[in-house]
Design goal:
single chain; mainly beta; 2 domains; 18 strands; elongated
Amino acid sequence: MRNASGALIALLNNQSQYYVADLLTITQANGAVTRLTSADFDVTAVSQVDNASHVFVCNGPKFTRTKTKLIVGLQVDTMTVVLMPDPVLHLLGGIPWPAAAAAGAFDEARIVVEKAIMAKWGDTSAGTLIQFGGRVGQVEASRSTITLPVNSDLELIRALMPRNTYQPGCVHTLFDSGCGLNRATFAVAGVTQAGSTVNQLNTTLANATGYFDQGTITFTSGALTGQSYTVKSFVSATRFTPMRAFAQAPTPGDTFNAYPGCDKLQATCSAKFANLARFRGYPYIPSPEAAR
């Protein structure tokens, strides 16, 4: 359903001539919001997205969109928005829009298209009308265009049910809200030892071999400060082997925090993390081969 204010309904009923502009709101997964308009000037309007006044700029990337329709039922409607940014003038996070799109800037983004209907140019007092809203699907980016297919919110009903499946391993991710453990309390501080390379970090940490397998290393000093790497394997008081090579060889004396990994097994949850009460696996369900 499209909600129109009384003033907008009166304008449409009583005035034979009015002006129209599209207002595009792009909300990225990281919370960043971009507001664009198809008009030749900036448009200030109260958006139905958050019921607040915003400026929709005309000097951002130009855009086109496909038509929308209203239907009765639960059919998932779609709309395609094509952005045409200037490779020099229009930057997103410091890089050109197409490059940002290719890097995933619009993955899981939300797009809302509103129509501003004005008695005269710039007069948005009658309010806006939402034309379409939904989530971005598979993004396609070229040198000069970004194609954003947008699926209506009815897409959510396509989610497979039930949400949780029965499986031997825990359905939680280590340190998430379901797991409940505080990541910071499991941090183990270490110092890089001589002989480390891009494929190996030598250490004196005496935790049991395998303790940090599938965990992470986050450097806290040196050239790699702030960078995190997944641990492929850990040998007690000897070395870490990362899943992917370090950006450069760690220097002796560089400090880091190491965090343990979890293989999602019941025994690991109990013995390693003492968190059995939150274990969400089902290790006693027969395997498909054994079920009768």
